[in-house]
Specification:
This protein is an alpha/beta fold and about 250 residues long. It is built from nine helices and seven strands, in the order βαβαβαβααβααβααβ. It has one domain: NAD(P)-binding Rossmann-like Domain (Rossmann fold, 3-Layer(aba) Sandwich). α2 links the parallel β2 and β3. The longest helix has 21 residues. The radius of gyration is 17 Å and the shape is globular.
């Protein structure tokens, strides 16, 4: 899975799953542009180094662009900066995401729109900006990070806004695969299950998770990173429109 001389834009890559994806792409040789609202990692085990610093330690080049993916101008600046600095964009990973709790009648319109604007509009803004660049090569890749909750519904209750946004991300990925396939751009969604990250509080959920997966271990961000690197590679050139579940068997229990 050689990604030498390719450029990847990864949103929400300062920490958690996005950081792991960025590092795995770098391990395979890709230059990485990190788009996030902050540059600092938030998970205890990630240490003090930023994602950009970690990527550069691996070997490829990297840069950080402060980005709110819900803002179309920010998304355009992110993608165009990557194309300008590295001569193009080969891989876009739409990872940035937020969540909230509440049934429909418990979710304010402001919170509903916040979740949709990041989790769905963010994919739209970044993909719209990246498409012209991705068309310039014969191995363009768009990888959207959805969730098993976009397929199953809430594993726990009161996740209306989040489940709606991730279901939309899955369906948008399928339609984008149809639209961009003739341009040799593959579009796939990854649907993570329980993963130790900034969206999963193991202190509260570990017992529930262990009772509902079939593996003896809970996933870590790098488990999603490995899958993203595969989908970004030439080895995955015939895979498109797929929602790949990475969940330790949660959906089969």
């Amino acid at each position: 899975m050689d990604l030498d001389n390719r450029t990847a834009v990864v949103t929400g890559a300062a920490t958690g799953i996005g950081r792991a994806i960025a590092l795995e792409l770098a391990e395979k040789g890709a230059n990485v542009v990190v788009g996030d609202v902050t540059e600092e990692p938030t998970l205890e085990w990630e240490g003090d180094q930023t994602t950009v610093e970690r990527v550069r330690a691996v070997g490829p080049e990297a840069r950080f662009v402060e980005t709110d993916v819900s803002d179309s101008d920010d998304a355009t600046v992110l993608v165009d900066s990557a194309a300008s600095e590295f001569g193009g964009v080969d891989i876009l990973v739409n990872n940035a995401g937020v969540t909230t709790d509440g049934a429909v009648d418990e979710t304010s319109l402001e919170e509903w729109r916040r979740v949709q604007s990041v989790n769905v509009d963010g994919i739209y803004h970044c993909s719209r900006a990246a498409a012209p660049h991705l068309r310039e090569n014969d191995s363009g890749r768009i990888i959207n990070i959805a969730s098993q909750r976009g397929l199953l519904g809430g594993a726990t209750d009161r996740k209306a806004a989040y489940c709606a946004s991730k279901g939309a991300a899955v369906q948008l990925s399928r339609q984008m695969a149809v639209d961009y396939g003739p341009d040799s751009i593959t579009v796939n969604a990854i649907c993570p299950g329980p993963v130790e990250s900034n969206m999963t509080d193991l202190a509260e959920e570990e017992t529930f998770i262990r009772d509902n997966i079939v593996t003896p271990y809970i996933g870590r961000p790098e488990d999603i990173g490995h899958v993203a690197a595969f989908l970004a590679s030439d080895e995955a050139r015939y895979i498109t429109g797929h929602a790949l579940v990475v969940d330790g068997g949660y959906l089969v229990t």
